[in-house]
Specification:
Elements (H helix, E strand, L loop, with lengths): L4 H4 L4 E11 L7 E6 L5 E6 L7 H4 L3 E5 L5 E3 L2 E3 L2 E2 L1 E3 L5 E3 L14
Antiparallel strand pairs: 1-2, 1-4, 2-3, 4-7, 5-6, 8-9
């Protein structure tokens, strides 16, 4: 599928700081994050990363998120975005991390 440039620019990718990571009761793969997007505010985001990351491995990390994705209810919680992740050669998910020189809320260009 080819996406037009006009469609691509509608997607907001922003840097967020993961401030808290909680287990979702009854779900083996799901974490619930509180993510700080700086001037854009805080959001709750759910992601199936538990098999690949410990809570401590995600806490206080800056990562890239799809910011303007329509909210979706997962396991009774509203997820207000999506963290970017890719599979590595071992078929494990890895998130896109950002260093401290980039502020929370920064939009990727």
């Amino acid at each position: 599928m080819v996406v037009s440039f006009e469609d691509w620019v509608k997607i907001e990718l922003r840097v967020g700081l993961i401030e808290s990571v909680d287990d979702v009761e009854g779900k083996d793969k799901l974490y619930r994050f509180s993510v700080d997007f700086g001037p854009e505010g805080k959001r709750t985001i759910l992601a199936g990363l538990k098999p690949y990351y410990s809570k401590e491995g995600l806490l206080n990390k800056k990562a890239v998120f799809v910011f303007n994705l329509a909210p979706r209810t997962l396991a009774g919680f509203e997820s207000q975005g999506m963290i970017l992740a890719m599979r590595n050669n071992l078929n494990e998910y890895k998130i896109t991390l950002v260093d401290d020189s980039v502020s929370q809320g920064t939009r990727l260009e």
